[in-house]
Structure formats: C-alpha cells, structure tokens
TrEMBL record:
EC numbers on record: 2.3.3.16
Keyword flag Cell division: no
GO molecular function term, any single one: citrate synthase activity
Name of the protein described by the UniProt record: citrate synthase (unknown stereospecificity)
Pfam family, one: Citrate_synt
Source organism phylogeny: Bacteria, Pseudomonadati, Thermodesulfobacteriota, Desulfuromonadia, Desulfuromonadales
PROSITE patterns according to UniProt: CITRATE_SYNTHASE (PS00480)
InterPro entries documented for this protein: Citrate_synth-like_lrg_a-sub (IPR016142), Citrate_synth-like_sm_a-sub (IPR016143), Citrate_synthase (IPR002020), Citrate_synthase_AS (IPR019810), Citrate_synthase_sf (IPR036969)
Recorded family membership: Belongs to the citrate synthase family.
Gene Ontology biological process terms from the UniProt entry: carbohydrate metabolic process; tricarboxylic acid cycle
Alphabetically ordered keywords of this record: Acyltransferase, Transferase
Gene3D superfamilies: Citrate Synthase, domain 1, Cytochrome P450-Terp, domain 2
Pathway membership: Carbohydrate metabolism; tricarboxylic acid cycle; isocitrate from oxaloacetate: step 1/2
Length: 437
C-alpha cells in the first residue's frame, strides 16, 4: 500500500464525520436563494457544489488546497536542477491536502511509472481515427476506450460495490488514468504533427520530463510542462470540465466515463478551447498585417471588429474572476524572466492585447470581467518552444485538468456525495413566480 493511499485513507476517515454532521444537524441552513437570472443564466453564483481541492476567490483567483499559485510552487519538492515541482507531488497535495516530502513524492513518481504503459488497443483506436480528427476528439476517445479496464466498473459489475470502500477503486482508476494521459497526449501529437514518429519514455524521468521527451521538445520544455499541468489542474468544481466530470461520476460512472465527458466540455471554445482560439485570433490578425508589428490603434480596431461581428475576444472575461487571472500572471512572469521569450514578438503582441483589450471590453460594456484569463497567455509559451500546432493546446490543458477532476471524484466517492439532480422549472412557472402572467 502506497503512502499516498494510506494518508488519503486517514484523511477520509477524519473528514467523513464533518460531512455527516453537516447533513444531519445543519442540513436546513440556507446558502442563499436562487433568482430567475441565475436559473436562466448558467447558475452563476449558486452555491450548490462542495469541494475542498481548490477554491476560487473572484478577486484573488485560485488557491489549491488553501495555497496561492506562488505558495504552491514554493512549497512542493522540486525536480533536481529545476525551479519547478514534480507534478506527482502536486497530485499528492491535491489528493491529501498535505505537502509531500521528497520521499513521498518519489514514491508517486515510481507508482505512476509502473502504471504508465498505454495499452496497445488505445494506440489502435487512435490510429483508426481520421488523422484530421481534432486532437481533443482523439484524446477523449482514448480515455473512453480505456473504460474496459476500470476496476471500479468491474467490482460494481461483480456485486462488490460498497459505499464506504468504493473510493479505493476510484483512486486506482484515477491513478492509472493519470499516469497514462501524458504519454497518450504525446502520442497523439507526434502521430498527427511529427510524421508519426515516436519517442519512448525514459525510466529515469518524472512525468513532466518524460512528457517533454516524448513530445520531442528540449529543455526547458520539461519545466514548461510541469508549470502548465499544475496551473491548469483545478479551478474549484463549478467550471464545465470539473462539473461535468463530477456530474457523470455521481451516477457511479467510473473515472474513464467521467473524465472523457469532462474533456468534451473542456473542448468548447468558451472553456478550454479558448487557448487555441487566442492563438488563432492572434495569427489571423498578424497575417492581415502581413507580419508587421501592429500599432495599438490597429489592435484596438481588430478587437472592435471582433466584438462588432458578434464574436467574443478569446482569453478575456470569466464567469467568476473579476481581476486578471493569477494563472495568466504566473505565465506572464515566466515569459518576463525567460531570456528570448521576454522580447519575443508574439509575447509582445500578447502583452499589447493586455494593455488594450480591457479598455475596449469596458467601453463595450457587456463583459463583467474585462481582464485576461489563463488562456490568453498559455499559447505564446508553447509557440515559443516550437509547439505551434495550436489545435493541440487544449489536450495539454486536459492532461493538467485531470489532476483536479480525478482528485475530486475520488473524494466524491469517499464522502458518498449523492447523484446530482437539480430541479428544473418551466418558463410559465418563472412567469408565475415573477407575477407577470
Ligand atoms: C479556462 C477557461 O475556461 S477561462 C474562459 C475561457 N473562455 C474565453 O476566454 C472566451 C471568452 N470569454 C467569454 O466568452 C466569457 O467571458 C466566459 C464564457 C468566460 C464567461 O461568460 P459569462 O460568465 O457569461 O460572462 P459575463 O457575465 O461577463 O457575460 C456578459 C456578456 O458579456 C459578454 N462577454 C463576456 N466575455 C466576453 C469577451 N471576452 N468578449 C466579448 N464579449 C464577452 C458575454 O458573451 C455576455 O454577452 P451577452 O449578454 O450578449 O450574452
Ligand atoms: O472557472 C471556470 O469557469 C473556467 C476556468 O477558468 C477553468 O476552468 O480553469
């Protein structure tokens, strides 16, 4: 039994009475009313989900297990020779709420390596798909294909389901899936864009290091990968990918069914696909200028053209945040401290958009948050290191997002959260409630 699983078991045992007490003794306490605008408008601000993995403050941004992004990076054990932590150590932290020691981290590194072999049938499935399928379609399909290996589903099928212990099967599936996602992503990348040539993992490397190697991108792309996966991991549980994963898992669907569904939500342009859209928008804009460095006036006009044609400015705005996303700031700082990148024309353009777009959006007067989100800054770093195939960017997001989604559904089963089933009403009922009928 790994240390992580043992620590998790202890944490779950300690936590369960809190949830039971809240339901039994305080179940009638109100968390607020629901308005018509919320019912029609995507349940914005309705407090009806519970997670302890991360929390999003509208002004401060995300905290992972109570830690801000800089605190998270500072606290976790670092890969030797790198400023960035092991993704495996971060997984330990999201799962348990504890910062692991180096020894505990390396135990997860070894555990993931043992589980990382991608089944041959997954490769067959990917190869059978049309090569021009979107990489997110391939990624989600690969995850779904592995459902046949679910331990959770097998034990359920064999009548071994037990509400108190089923988290263990979810944990095993979650860990098996987590260990395979980066190799699957790298396989898709090289099959689609690098002449179908592939690079084997190096048993001496951690997850981030191996991902860079299998992608065929030199250092410091290993650090970029570690940073990227950690930054994209979780954003409390109401966002589309996390909520979808949670919803599907609430029917006791296993981790494969659930996360494949979560990825399908992440693939939407208002969610994870926005990072692809940002690069598409920027490249189209540059092409129209014939590669010339744009002026602020030209940029402002392009932003207005986008808004006036009824499109959104990708990478800007947010459902919860009301300030610049600290994940944006963290990646911006990475660019500013990286020689070459800080003067890179695409980074300069992204910085110019940061100067101009919030004012344009404020004048436009619709978006509640005119500031950039994570997606406005992530593509430029990938581009700089040679990963210019921007329809692949959401797959990178999907590898990172799995850390949060899978930790969440493991805890969902540990705490016995119910099947999700909010109540719907008809339009006539809303009119009645509003007294306009
Ligand atoms: C990882 C992530 O998922 S981060 C988000 C990634 N998505 C993007 O960057 C896409 C661009 N942004 C958006 O579309 C939105 O800001 C969202 C989807 C992120 C949030 O949506 P909402 O919570 O509905 O935003 P908000 O309440 O501010 O919307 C009010 C109005 O402003 C508009 N608006 C919001 N952001 C933008 C934007 N970036 N450009 C233009 N219009 C915008 C909305 O479309 C809406 O218009 P409507 O009244 O005509 O329907
Ligand atoms: O929180 C949200 O709604 C969207 C987002 O930024 C994320 O999921 O990372």
């Amino acid at each position: 039994m790994s240390t992580l699983k043992e620590v998790l078991r202890k944490k779950i045992d300690e936590h369960r009475p809190r949830t039971v007490k809240l339901i039994k003794e305080c179940g009638d306490v109100s968390l607020g009313e629901v308005t018509i605008a919320q019912a029609i408008g995507g349940a914005r601000g309705v407090k009806c989900l519970v997670t302890d993995i991360s929390y999003l403050d509208p002004m401060e941004g995300i905290r992972f297990r109570g830690k801000t992004i800089p605190e998270t990076f500072a606290a976790l054990p670092k890969v030797p020779g790198s400023d960035y932590p092991y993704v495996e150590g971060f997984w330990y932290m999201l799962m348990t709420g504890d910062v692991p020691t180096m020894e505990q981290t390396l135990e997860v590194v070894e555990d993931w390596k043992k589980r990382s072999q991608v089944p041959e049938y997954v490769i067959d499935v990917l190869r059978a798909m049309p090569r021009d399928s979107h990489p997110m379609t391939m990624f989600s399909t690969a995850v779904l294909a592995m459902q046949r290996d679910s331990i959770f589903a097998k034990n359920y099928r064999e009548g071994k389901f037990n509400k108190m212990t089923c988290w263990e099967d979810m944990y095993e599936d979650a860990t098996n899936l987590m260990a395979k996602l980066a190799p699957i992503a790298a396989y898709i990348y090289r099959m689609k864009y690098k002449g179908d040539t592939h690079i084997d993992a190096d048993p001496n490397l951690d997850m981030g290091g191996n991902f860079a190697r299998m992608m065929g991108v030199d250092a410091p792309y290993d650090d970029v990968a570690r940073m990227y996966f950690i930054l994209h991991s979780d954003h409390e549980s109401g966002n589309v990918s996390a909520h979808t994963t949670h919803l599907v898992a609430s029917a006791l669907s296993d981790a494969y069914y659930s996360y494949s569904a979560g990825l399908n939500g992440l693939a939407g342009p208002l969610h994870g696909l926005a990072n692809q859209e940002v690069l598409g928008w920027t490249q189209d804009f540059m092409a129209k200028l014939g590669g010339e460095v744009p002026t602020k006036e030209q940029l402002e006009k392009a932003l207005w053209d986008t808004l006036n044609s009824g499109q959104v400015i990708p990478g800007y705005g947010h459902a919860v945040l009301r300030k610049t996303d600290p994940r944006y700031s963290s990646q911006r700082e990475f660019c500013l401290k990286t020689e070459g990148l800080k003067d890179y024309p695409l980074f300069k353009l992204v910085s110019m958009i940061y100067e101009v777009a919030p004012g344009v959006l404020q004048e436009h007067g619709k978006a509640k948050n005119p500031w950039p989100n994570v997606d406005a800054q992530s593509g430029v770093i990938q581009w700089y290191y040679g990963v210019t195939e921007y329809d692949f960017y959401t797959v990178l997001f999907g590898v990172g997002r799995a850390i949060g989604c899978l930790a969440n559904i493991t805890w969902d089963r540990a705490l016995g959260y119910a099947i999700e089933r909010p109540k719907s009403v008809t339009t006539a009922m809303l009119e009645d409630a509003a007294g306009i009928k």
